[in-house]
Specification:
With 679 residues, the protein is of the alpha+beta class. It has four domains: 18-171, Beta-Lactamase, CATH 3.30.450; 188-340, GAF domain (Beta-Lactamase), CATH 3.30.450.40; 358-527, Rossmann fold, CATH 3.40.50; 536-672, Helicase, Ruva Protein, domain 3, CATH 1.10.8. Strands 1, 2, 3, 4, 5 and 6 form a six-stranded antiparallel sheet that branches. A six-stranded antiparallel sheet has the order 9-8-7-12-11-10, sandwiched between helices. Strands 14-15-18-13-19 form a five-stranded parallel sheet. The structure holds adenosine-5'-triphosphate (ATP).
Length: 679
């Protein structure tokens, strides 16, 4: 019959060993015995011997030690009865209390949860490694002690040991559980596979006090188990067949298995792995890893129980319970890490798609400069004011900034301030509480809250009411919103990019726009030039929209002929890029030919005929400030040459002749102006 399971482990708070308990309690018991006999200890000879990992040792002795004590103890334990020899009677130290502790206590507590509770029956003592055997021998007055007295003493000592071991187990269990929980909380933060599995394995080594631990995840289709961390394995991948060795047994049976050296079942251990790792496995414990759908996803293996912390020098039943619990935590961490990684990938894909779906197209110097400035301003949280006529792409630029910033994974929310009356605008931006209005039947978040962690694009900010302006200023300064009808400040982390096509300075002078709000919004200002001043960008955008709409409706992409190119280059585009987009959309739907002619564009006639040079070129300014005459002349020349080249369908000889230049002089002029001549 086996002795109680004892699990010392790296004792949290320094605990006594069984031997120390025996040495502490035996004099007390013998004193009581001597008192009961009204005699002295002189005629009492008593000893306690124990067997640990096949070695017998004397734990306690009083009087002359019996030379055959170890063999007597061995016989008493093997036969499970009192043995008498050379004036001594000997019995195994085990009691009803000890047995209850072993079966009722340990096995039923081996694991928790539906899956493993059912499997705990698989932990049978025949497989369990040996636990220390303890025997008591007693001689009184040079004669074997009476059986009843011997038994009483053995049971009492047994109870002391059980109490001590239970307390020790409880303390250790508490420490193990809190260590596992602390680790499991950190696993939720880890996104790297290897880092997670390494941390889980390290935790197993810590709570079980063993040398190594490996998580074998099951590649069902290839019928392989992939072990990680693969310490010492060349190439860093440890792969075994899914039915090989003890790990394979666990996978196939769905039950824990343990093993220690010394038996005749050494073949169960895969020595090839030991050889590859230059390692020697002397004890091993493996438990199944079962997910919430009751599917086995792998095997968790712990190797080489630390003999200083494991009384038997091998893993025991509480270790099975501990590793099974750790396996549950590990499965949850692995599952949630996989879900997180998948979600992150999906989110990144969607964000990239969103960023690519509305690109800021343009090669004109002004657009390139805007792109550079947007890249500089994107990583900061500075407020940006985007200026430009209607349809020039202010929202596109705001999105471009958002998708280049750290907030790219957060929302981009756009509000057109001109489209809403004052009362609605406030509710739209800041939200409202239930009952704030007659028809406010429930509370509602405003755009500031919805854009939390992202960017709020306030279009037509110049049209905001004075009340709205005051509230907006407060939110920008205090970073909290108060819903209409509410009093609770709600913190928001929202970047604001505002836009307007109105001259805000004039509105300030007319007291229609708050100056303090202007300064708050205008930390950085970016100006989009009218489309008519962007030279060949007109065609770049036209080709982009043509391609886009043709794809959308599934028709072959037609080509612009020279007349349509010229018309588009010369058109003043008062509605800017939006007008161009609408024009091309209409062409895609209404024409069927492979070639698009000028009349297909159905452009509105330009008052006063086709201008000699792009409209608004003289107004083209950098960042809203008037540039000097030389620079303005240079910009005009560039735009004019680009327009001529585009109008001639790229034919440089024609363009030069239209411009009154020789072809080679045109090239020279372009180089002087810093224009590309490569095409
Ligand atoms: N540089 C660009 N590249 C690609 N598309 C653009 C560009 N600029 C504008 N667009 C397109 O033109 C249309 C109008 O752009 P957007 O709404 O950004 O202009 P806006 O200046 O904000 O207009 P409004 O002042 O009227 O609100 C949109 O369909 C947008 O996709």
């Amino acid at each position: 019959m086996s002795s109680p399971v004892n699990h010392a482990g790296p004792a949290p708070g320094g605990q006594l060993s069984d031997d120390e308990i025996i040495v502490q309690k035996m004099p007390l018991l013998l004193g009581l015995l001597a008192g009961a006999k009204a005699g002295n200890l002189g005629d009492i000879r008593c000893g306690v011997v124990s067997q640990n990992a096949d070695r017998w040792q004397t734990s306690f002795w009083t009087g002359d030690e019996l030379p055959t004590a170890h063999s007597l103890a061995s016989e008493a334990i093997d036969r499970g009865e009192i043995i008498t020899q050379d004036a001594f009677s000997a019995v195994e130290v085990e009691s009803l209390g000890i047995q209850q502790s072993l079966t009722g206590g340990e096995n039923s507590r081996v694991s928790s949860g539906n899956v493993t509770r059912e499997r705990s029956s698989a932990i049978d003592d025949s497989v369990a490694p040996g636990t220390p055997n303890v025997a008591l021998m007693l001689s009184i007055g040079n004669a074997p002690a009476p059986p009843a007295l011997l038994r009483t003493l053995a049971v009492t000592l047994g109870r002391f040991l059980v109490l001590h071991r239970d307390r020790q187990n409880d303390t250790r269990r508490l420490w193990q559980t809190s260590t596992m929980l602390q680790n499991a909380a950190q696993w939720q933060q880890l996104d790297d596979d290897d880092e997670l599995l390494e941390s889980v394995a390290q935790c197993a080594c810590e709570v079980l006090s063993c040398e190594r631990a490996t998580i074998f995840l099951w590649d069902k289709s290839r019928r392989r188990l992939i072990g990680r961390p693969a310490i010492g394995i060349e190439g860093g991948v440890l792969e075994v067949e899914d039915d090989a060795g003890i790990v394979g047994e666990v996978l196939q049976s769905g039950s824990p298995r343990w093993w220690s050296a010394g038996g005749n079942d050494g073949g169960r251990v895969n020595r090839r792995i030991d050889q590859a790792q230059n390692f020697n496995t002397h004890s091993l414990l493996a438990v199944p890893m079962v997910n919430s759908r009751d599917q086995i996803i792998g095997v968790f293996e712990a190797i080489n129980a630390n003999p200083d912390d494991h009384r038997s020098g091998a893993f025991d039943a509480p270790d099975v319970r501990t590793l099974s619990e750790l396996a549950l935590h590990a499965v949850v961490a692995i599952d949630s890490q996989r879900t997180r990684v998948n979600l992150t990938r999906t989110r990144d894909r969607l964000v990239s798609q969103a960023a690519e779906s509305n690109p800021l197209i343009g090669n004109h110097e002004s657009i390139r400069e805007l792109r550079t400035n947007a890249t500089k301003v994107a990583p900061t949280d500075l407020s940006v004011l985007v200026l430009g006529q209607n349809g020039t792409g202010k929202e596109v630029l705001a999105q471009h900034i958002h998708y280049q910033s750290e907030r790219r994974n957060g929302p981009f929310v756009a509000v057109n301030c001109a489209a809403l009356v004052e009362s609605l605008l406030e509710s739209e931006l800041f939200g409202h509480e239930k009952g704030a209005y007659t028809d406010a039947s429930s509370a509602r978040q405003g755009k500031f809250e919805l854009a939390n962690g992202g960017t709020l694009f306030l279009d037509e900010v110049g049209d905001m009411s004075p009340g709205g302006q005051a509230k907006l200023l407060r939110v920008l300064e205090e970073r909290v919103v108060v819903r209409v009808g509410g009093s609770q400040p709600i913190p928001v982390d929202t970047r604001v990019i505002a836009a307007t096509n109105q001259p805000l300075q004039d509105l300030i002078a007319a007291k229609r726009f708050r100056e303090d709000l202007f300064f708050r919004l205008n930390v950085v200002s970016l100006t989009l030039p009218p489309l008519s001043s962007r030279g060949s960008d007109v065609m770049l955008l036209a080709e982009h929209f043509l391609d886009h709409f043709c794809r959308q409706i599934g028709r072959a992409v037609p080509k612009f002929d020279e007349t349509s190119r010229r018309a588009m280059i010369m058109h003043p585009w008062p509605g800017n890029v939006r007008e161009l987009r609408n024009t091309i959309e209409r062409v895609c739907y209404l024409t069927t030919s492979d070639i698009i002619h000028e009349e297909d564009l159905m452009l509105r006639p330009i008052e006063g005929g086709i201008p000699e040079f792009p409209a608004n070129a003289m107004r083209h300014t950098s960042g809203g400030t008037i540039i000097n005459l030389n620079e303005a002349t240079r910009e005009f020349q560039i735009a004019h040459i680009e327009a001529a080249i585009m109008a001639c369908g790229g034919n440089m000889t024609d363009a030069a002749s239209k411009l009154g230049l020789h072809r080679s002089n045109l090239y020279r002029k372009m180089r002087q102006l810093g224009m590309s001549t490569s095409e």
